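Homework help board

Subject: predicted structure for assignment chain

Our instructor gave us this sequence and asked us to write out the predicted structure in C-alpha cell form, then describe one feature. I got the C-alpha cells but I'm not sure how to describe them. Can anyone check?
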Amino acid sequence: MSRNIKRIAVYTSGGDAPGMNAALRAVVRTCAYHEIEVFGITGGYEGMMDGNMTKLETRDVGNIIQRGGTFLKTARSMRFMTEEGRKLAASALKKHKIEGLVALGGNGTFTGAEIFNKEHGFPVVGVPCTIDNDLYGTDYTIGFDTALNTAVEAVDRIRDTAESHDRLFFIEVMGRNSGYLALHTAIASGATLVLLPEKETTYDELANVLKTSAKRKKLFSLIIVAEGNTLGKTEEIAEELKSRVGAYDTRVAVIGHLQRGGSPSGADRLLASRLGSYAVEALLDGHKNVMVGIDNNMIKYTPLGIAIRNQKEINLDELRLAEILAL
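My C-alpha cell output:
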C-alpha cells in the first residue's frame, strides 16, 4: 500500500441518500488510521469552487452513523459544469494542498468527477450513494435499502385503507431511469402490479390483470409505479385505468421525498462503512477515476465512465417472481 498521499478531501454531491454520514465517518476514521489529513468540503462542487474546506478529526464524525442526510451538505452545481468553474475548484484544492478526492454521490457526481480528473489530474474515487441503485459495478448502492424499507412501510399503511375501502391504489416511488426500487417494493409489499422504466407495459395488459382480479373477488389492488415508467405520469395512468376498469374506486399516492430521509438501515450503515473505508485505501493503492463497489460480497473497482454509462439491468428472475407472487 502506497503512502504517497498525505492529504485528501471528501464531499457529498447531488441527491442525498441515507448512509452518507456513515460513509463520511468511515472515510475520516480510515484516514486517521493511516495518518492522512482529511478535509471535508461543504456543499459539494459549489463548496469546492468556493474553497469551503475544513479539516476533519475523528471527533467531528462521532454520533453521526445513525443520522440521515449529510452533515457536509450537498448541492447540484451548474457552475461546475463549466470549464471556468472546474478551474476554480482545482485552484482551491491546490491552495489546500489536496492530493486526492473521495466523492460520495451518484451519476451526476461521478460525471463531474470523471471530467475533473481528466482535466486537472486529481485522483478521484467514487462511493456510490443513491436510492435508485442504478450504478453499474456494485450490487447495491448506499441508501437503497433504507429507501426500500421506507417505501414498503408506506405501502403497508396504504394497504390498510385500500382493503378497508376496496380501493385500487397507484403508489409512485422514485426511479426516473431505474426500476430497482419499484420492483423490490412490489415484491416486498405483495403488490398486484409494478410499472418500470425497463419494461414496456400496455394499458390492455394492465386492464386484463385488474379485470381478472375483480373476477376473483379481489376487491382492492396495489400497483407500484416507478416515476420513470414507460406509460407516463401516475395520475394519468390512474385516470385511464379507471375508465377501462370500473370495478375499483381509484386513488393515487406519491411517496416522494420521504424515501430520501430517515435513519439509515443496518444494511446501509454496514455498506457505507465498508465502501467509505475502501475508498480511502483505494487512493493509497494508486487507484484513480474509479468507483468502489461490492460485487458478490467482494470489493470491486469500476472506472467511473463505465459505472455511469453502462446500463445496470433489472434482475429478470426478480421480475418473474413479482409476476408469480401477484397471482
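Reply (TA_rk): Your C-alpha cells look well-formed. For the description, you could write something like this. The chain has two domains: 7-143+264-309, 147-260. That's the kind of observation they're looking for.
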